[in-house]
Each structure stands twice: as structure tokens, then as C-alpha cells.
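Q: A reviewer asked whether we had any structural model of the full assembly, not just the individual parts. We don't, so I'm hoping you can provide one. Inputs are below.
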Amino acid sequence: MRTGGWHGWSQTLADAIKLLTKEDILPSGADPVLFRLAPALVMGSALAMFAVLPFAPGIQFADLDLGIYFLLAIASLTTIGVIMAGWGSNNKWSLYGAMRGAAQAASYEIPLALSLIPPILHFGTFSLLNATEQQSGWGGMGWYVFSDAFWVAIPSFFLFLTASLAENRRAPFDLPESESELVAGFHTEYSGLRFAFFFLEEYAAMFATSAVATAYWLGGWNFPGMTLLAEGSAWLPWLGALAFLLKAMFLVCVMIWVRWTLPRLRIDQVMTLGWKYLTPLALGLMVAAAGWEAWRAMP
Amino acid sequence: MTGEVLAFSLFSAMAVGGAGLALFHRSAIHSAFALLASFLGVAGLYLNLGADFLAVTQVLLYAGGILVLYLFGLMLVPPEGEAPRPGRRALALVLAAAPVAIFLIAFLARSSWGDPSRLPEPEGTVRGIGLALLTPDGWLVPFEYASILLLAALVGAVHLARRSAPKDDSP
Amino acid sequence: MSLVAYLVVAALLMVAGLAMVASRRSLIHVLIGLELVLNASALNFVAFDRYSGGGQEGQLAALFVIVVAAAEAALGLAIVLHAYSSKGSIRPDDFRSLGDS
Amino acid sequence: MGSMEGDALTPARPPKPSSFRRWWVNLYEGVVSTAQGMSITLRTFFKKPVTVQYPEQELELDGRYRGIHFLEQDLCIYCDVCAKACPVDCIEMDATRHGKELEWHVFTLDYNRCMLCELCVYPCPKDCIHQGEEYALVTENREDMVLDLLTWKGLTDEQKQKIAETEAAKAARDAEKEKGE
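A: Here is a predicted structure for the entire assembly that you could use as a starting point for your response.
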């Protein structure tokens, strides 16, 4: 399995088995409770985000009124998990990583939430399902980025992607685990399955944020040619889920693509970007979106 | 035992247990993390009371915001110094907390607040809260006051933090 | 569940917060104790709101309590950090004078 | 994302614009440079990969690769020049001279120390030590890193024959000398 089969497809499987079977180490100086609790908290909150994602018509665990608000709240819990891991490891690199993670997550949560406001204003709902259903016009192409508010939608979409990169601790904002300075940051001391949990959390959170971007900006499960299907066709959930997953996975690929391209920022650059650039931009977009929606709603 | 009672017991145990752990644990960081359980328990109680928006706000602001802020603060300052003496804590409990607790619980036990025979069905509260906060005959003015309060707090916090960084003798 | 059950939980939270304010030896824990007290009061608001039937005034009040708590946290922590940088200590006992010294 | 305020890497532009204009310029440059970078990665993404699956495939080396040494022992004259030239002193050699023939005992190269600098190759008067294209030096302990460059040790039959011949010739010469006296 060294080269991992056709195009390396089995490499992930091999990695998972490897991580499952590796020794689970509890460093002698570590705090046993916090050290063990942190991966569970991080993983649990990442998985809880999936509860409100609308994958396809009829495929959603829970359609909450509060959909996206709930998701943001749950996502903010991972920050606590990161701090817990960093502190519980009793390692200075871990602690540095955790502090950076906390500062970064607290800073980027603001542009992240603010960049969600234009679509929330446009659709008038927190519910991801409702927002997706409102984008089914034009034969499945009535996405928010193609709507009459596209000039707000497109910048806010990129803003959301950038902020979610920082929120998920992905390159170029992966300072909490920057390996050239901090070994592996907050998960330096973790091994085996506990490390796998942090690893999986990162990718699960990436998928969840991509799915949110898909549901709010890229039309969710709506795809062109959808209207050709008969009303209530049994194919619709499957094709819808396929369209949703393709769009979300494309955004995940974009996040990985950013990782190939951009070098890691310094912590002061991260803070500058977050507070001086993204937050004012997000505020401006919020005002623009509110003005536009108010203009449109006028009789 | 209905689901509601079960949920109530679980969440109130989380809330009170977390608070107790935060009170008695010797390590500063541990008591801050115990507070997470307490906050989540209170969020669960809000859910139980049909206040879903409030529950999520509780998680978002307390667990994701305020607690992170406190943890950050705890990492920036040294630990409490010498371990707190158990006697001192017991004394504080007896002098400050116990009378309040006894008074409150006795008061509640003697209270005549009856429960309504039928509670209104819990429903989504986002719409109602949004309308109440943003209509002039609702809570618009307090809402704007709250934003001014937050702005003032933010400016004050930035000012304090900025002044502490360089040792600056100018008045 | 009855109203009093929620009120008892809130009372216990409040007592825990008060005891924390009185007994912990760091200003940050005093602030954390205050958060518990605020939480207890918000819980009371919501419980009364639910059991008085109809309306969301209690929830709105609780929302404002959370806002106040956020402001308190930001400002309180800034004060604590400032106090630490000027006195080198965050023990409440070390802050006895109001003067410049 | 590209150039940010206070970035040490970007040279300061001579006419310093107002901070509000700089904000927009920074924003524009950040977006544009990110887009440029992304387009470069995208183009590279669709190119054939340049990676080589090493144990199965190997790279073609050009002729000047400095790999593990090899010695043309029959040319070597035991002059010790290579060992003297070595900056890390990793060559060790020992041989006994029998007239012109050499009885080799040791010629080792310690790859724990060797940095493959090729300084031993240049001074060789007989051009008999070379660096080859072999580079995989993987062992489980340090002793195995000390490689023996000799192809044979002691004396070969050929050498013995030559020594015998020279000794016989010498003996014959001596005998003639004795006769002459």
C-alpha cells in the first residue's frame, strides 16, 4: 500500500488504520482530564455541525429555525477544545498554538458571522433548508450569487471562504499548528486516535463550512436541469445530494488549493487582515446588503 | 419520568455541578473549563424552557466568546499564587454563600407561585425576538442602548489595554 | 417541571457565583463568579417568562443580561490586565488603596 | 493577503500614499496577488507530476554525480594523497610494499564522516579513486557505514608470481655479481 493504489485512493484508508492502531500516549506531565476531553469536545462539535446541513430534499437531520446560528455557536466550541488541548498537553509549543488559535478564532468569528448576513437578509431566514428552497428558481440556477444582489453576494462569498479558512485553522492561517515554529502546535503531544480526532475535525469543519457556503450562496442541492425531473421524482434526492456534495467538495478543494498556493502568514499579519481588512469589509457589505434589500422591498 | 424531567435533571446537574466544580477546584484553568459545563447546562435549561434562540446565544456568546476571553486572560496572568487555604474558602462559604442559599431556598419553598395548568407549546422564538427588538414600540430603544453600552465597553477596554502596554507617564 | 425547580437551580448558581467572588484569590475568578450570578438571573427571567404564559419579555431581558455580561467580561478583563501590569498581582487583597501609589 | 501593512518583505514604495488609499491599494494587491498565485497553482495542477516513485523508479543521474566512491585498486600506488586531502579525515589505508607490488591490508572510507566533497578525487596521481552513481547508503548501524573499497586483500596470485619473478631476477643478478667478483 505504499503508493496507495489507483491515484492513491487507499492512502486515506491506510492512514486511518495506521492512526487507529498507533499507541495512545498520555504524556506524564499532561493533565489527564483535559488532555482526554479535548479531542472529544473538538470532534463532537465538528460532528454536531452536520446536524443542520441540508444535503438534499428530505435528507437533513434537523431543520432548525436557527440553522446557521446554531452552526456558528457549535463551531465556536472547537476553540475551547483547542485551548483545552494546548493547556492539557503541558507543553509550551502546545500552549503557544492554543493561544494563537484562541486569538485567531475570536478575531475571525466576527467577519465570518458578518459575511453571512447578506444571504440571511436576502432569504430572510436562519434555516439552511429554507434558504436552499428559495434558490430553486430559473430551472435550478436561482442561486444567490446569480441573483440581482450578485454584487454583494460574490464579495461576501469570498469573504466567508477566507474567514472560514482562518476559523478552521487552515493554511495560510494555520498558525496554531505551524510546524516550522511550534512542532505541531496544540496537538504536538497527541498520538493515535486522539490525534486523528483533531485531524478529522479539521476536515469535517472544512466540509461543514463549505456546505454552508453551498447552501447559502451556491444554491444548495439545486442544479440546472432540475425542472426536467417529474414532480416528486425519486431521483431528485439522489441527484440533489450529488449536486450538493459536488459543490461542497469543490469548495473543499478550493481550500486545499489555497493551501498549495499561499505561504503561512505571521500572527500580526493574521490579526491585521482580520481586524483591519475583513471586518470593515464585512461591515460594509452588510450595510450594502441591507440597503439593497430595503430598496427592493420598497413598494 | 418524562423526557422533560430527564432533560431538566441532566442540564441542571451540569449547570450546578459545573458551577460547584468551578468554585471548589484548586486549579484556575480547571475551574474555567468547569464553567463551560455550567454554561452549556444553562443553555440546555433554556432549551427546556422553550427559548431556543437564547440557548444558542448562550452557547455562542458565553462558551465561544466570554469563556475564551477568560481563558486568554488566565493564560496572560500568573496562577493564583499559593494554593487557597481550605479554611478560608469554607469560611467564605459559610459567611457569604450559606445565608443567601438558605434564605433563597426557604423563600422559594414558601412561595405561592403556582404552575399554570397548561404551558404554552414551545415554538420558534427567532421571529418574535427579532420583531420585538427592532420595532419602535417594542424594545428598539433598549436594543440601541445595549449597542452603545457594548461600544463604550469596547472603547474602554481598548483604551485600558493600550495604556498598559508602553509605560507612558503622560497624564 | 415546576417553576420552583428552575428557580432553585438559579439560586444554586447564584450562590456558587457569590461564593466564588468571596473566596477565590484571583480577580479573574471574581469576574467568573459574577458571570455565574448573571447567568442565574438570566435563567430566572426565562423561567418566569415561560411560566407566566405568553410573551417573550423575559427572554429579551435575558438577552440583555448576556449583553451586559459580554461588556462586563471585556471591560473587567481589561481592568484586570491593566491592574496586573501596574501592580504585578491579581490578588484582590493587594488592591487596598484607591490612590496612585 | 499578499502585502500587508508593516510587511518587511515588500520594499517601501517611494511616494507614500495616505493611509486610507494604502488600505485600498493593499486590498487590491492582496486580492490580485492571491488570484495570480492561485492561477499558477492551477496551471501546475494540470501538468504531469514531476515526482518519481523512488524505490520503483529512479532518476537518471548526469555523469557528474558524486556518489559512493570506488577504487581502481590495480592502479593505486598507496601514495596516501587522497587521505591527506580529505578534510574530514575519513580515508584510512594500509599496505605493505613488496618492491613495486603492494600487499593491501586496509582501504576504508568512513561515510559517517565523508561529505562526498570529491576533494580526494582531484589530487590522485593515478586517477584511480572515483565517485560513482550509487547513493543509497542505508544501514541499521554505524559500523556498516565504514565501507571497504578494496576489491581484494593481501596478494593475488599474479602479484605473487611477479614478486617471485622479481626476486628470482634479483637473485640471478646477485649471483652474477658474486660470479663477477
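A: Points you may want to mention in the reply: Residues 52-76 of chain B form the longest helix (25 residues). Chain B has six helices and no strands.
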